[in-house]
Amino acid sequence: MQAHEVPTHVQAEDRVLLWLTFPQIVALTAVCALAYGCYHFAPFGPAEIRIALAALFALAGVAAVAGRIGGRRLPLVAADLLRYALGARRFAGAPAELARSEPPAPVQPDEANAAPLRLLARRPRGRRQEGERRNGRIPLRRRFGRRPQPAPEEALDERRATSREDRERRLGSKHRRRRDFWKHFLVAAAIALVLLTALPLSSALAQEPGEEGWSSEEIEFQPPPVVPGRRLFVESLTVTDGRARVALRAATDLDLRVRARGGPAGRSLRSYASASLKEGERASYDLPLDGPSPSLVFSWEDELGQAGALSLDGERLPHPLPRAAGDLCSLRVVSLGWSPGAVEGAVASSCVRTIGEAVSLQTVAGHADVTTTTLLAAEVTAVTGTITVSSGAREAGVAGVAGGETRFRLAVAAGEGVHALAIKTEVQAALRIPLPPLVQLSHRPERSERLTETAVVTIPAFGDTVTETVAIPNEDGTVTEHAVSASCSVPASTVRQDVVFTVVHPERVEADVVARAPLARSRGETLALASSLWGDEPYRALTVPKPEPARPTPAQTPARGDDLSEWFKRLGWEWIW
Questions:
Q1: Distances (CA, A) of 270 to 295, 310, 417
Q2: Which of 116, 178, 473, 507 would bridge 446 by S-S if both were Cys, CB 3.0 to 4.6 A apart?
Q3: Is the pTM of this model over 0.85?
Q4: 3-class DSSP state for residue 91?
Q5: Helices and strands in the chain: count of H runs, count of E runs
Q6: Is the CB of residue 507 less than 8 Å from the CB of residue 489?
Q7: pLDDT tens-digit readout, 204-231
Q8: DSSP designation for 242
């Protein structure tokens, strides 16, 4: 066998596919993807132009990745050319021309420029020169003092900086004028809008008092005093799944507006109704409950010109109705309502028919005992339960209906308030658990048994013929052959013989399968539900105080001389006429 050693010190790249290395393959894949992107996503030109552009891009990319000049890759060659074009050139003269016999003498600054250069050298970084502007103004000492004459190079730099600052200042002033124009335009538009809005109001205020204008009585109108008392009462409230039935009763004549709001944020109007109710008149509404936090708003305006509103939301409105899930039964409140003095509702239950029950089961008995805990399917034969509803110190219990609705009624205290309800359900289920059969093991020790059996052998009939050739020599020396045949036959017979033998039974374990009766058990669980409901005060009519008698309007009457004399006498004055 020939052995080949690959040197590890050779700086050579591995060729993955043909003459391409792995980085070149990755670069070619990226070039192809970009070329396809140029063709597919270019927003200009027909398909032919985009194909040509993609082809040119692909050729350039392939040349940059796989092309070589003199054994060097094209990107390296381009980098060298760019460095040569932008970098310093080599000195073409003799090396002796670059050498100096003695070091150059240091440059001595003149007296005119010594001080400014020294000041520049000592000036710390980040600080402005004295000649620079601060906040757009030149300091007084630089404005009225003597300015130093800059050097020619410094003067050129200063002129360049000044021209650049002037150019930037002109551009800034142009942008500033444009910004000021738009600012003034927006301010003028706002003022014009305010004036146009105020013109109708000013014209209305300038009208003469009359039928269409504003009179002094309307401007000096004083609202009537507030009459205390409830105008609207809620006589019953029943919430079902997604609906609310509300019965309202008016304590005085009023105009009613009913709004139901819902939606994701609870602000969308879902229902609207209006009615005019007389004192003691009732009105019922079936309103939708939509979204996670719906609300019901009942606003009114009575005959006295006063207005108000009543809102039901949050804990005052049980939505969504509570529900709970257990192993045996699932409960949900399908109806919850309030009426004066009582809270009524209905709880629906759905129970399972089969359930898994953990049983400690003996599977093998007898010679060996094996007991294990297994989960068996149990049949639920009967479900009973009790529902207890409590609110504060009041409590009421009712027998539950499995697989149906259970209605309850709880007496509550009269008066306005929120009733917090706690619904506790205790469930008991009778289970019938079919058990698998029991394996009964029996041990059998080794034993020997001597048995005698009669063996019966039947011998069939048998017959055969034998022919032999006999050679007899003659006297003359010849041989005479004779064939001799003999026949033999044996008749059929039966032979009986008693045989005695010993049988050895080895040690063994025998298994028997025994059926078992089903197991009866009971299982219980407790489910808790909680909700709240608002209750209103008992109805009472609004007592409106009698209106005060209207004061007579004072009227001026011309005074007579006699009346004036009497009045002067009461004041102690002297009547001169």
A1: 10, 17, 26
A2: 507
A3: no
A4: coil
A5: 8, 26
A6: no
A7: 444 444 434 444 444 445 666 788 889 9
A8: T
